[in-house]
Inverse folding.
């Protein structure tokens, strides 16, 4: 990885330092299958960088854990909705 890529990557993740989850046990955000996600989502609920966190997870294909207040299943659903919306917009323009 070159220096420019490293610096850009660092800037792209600067939001992480303002996240509510800083200092919280990371295991909370990666619960066992079937375990409650309620506590992790509560931490995310009032977070000022929730949107950045969610977009990071979507852009990087995070398959596990709670990101931006959404579980893996919820992120998959959101991805599908976005794809369908983009397809519909494209169909309208064509």
């Amino acid at each position: 990885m070159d220096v420019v890529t490293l610096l850009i990557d660092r800037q792209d993740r600067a939001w992480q330092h303002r996240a509510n989850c800083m200092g919280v046990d990371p295991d909370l955000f990666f619960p066992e299958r079937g375990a409650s996600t309620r506590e992790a989502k509560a931490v995310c609920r009032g977070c000022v960088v929730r949107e950045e966190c969610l977009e990071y997870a979507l852009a990087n294909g995070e398959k596990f854990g709670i990101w931006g207040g959404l579980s893996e299943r919820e992120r998959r659903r959101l991805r599908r909705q976005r794809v369908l919306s983009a397809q519909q917009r494209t169909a309208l323009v064509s």
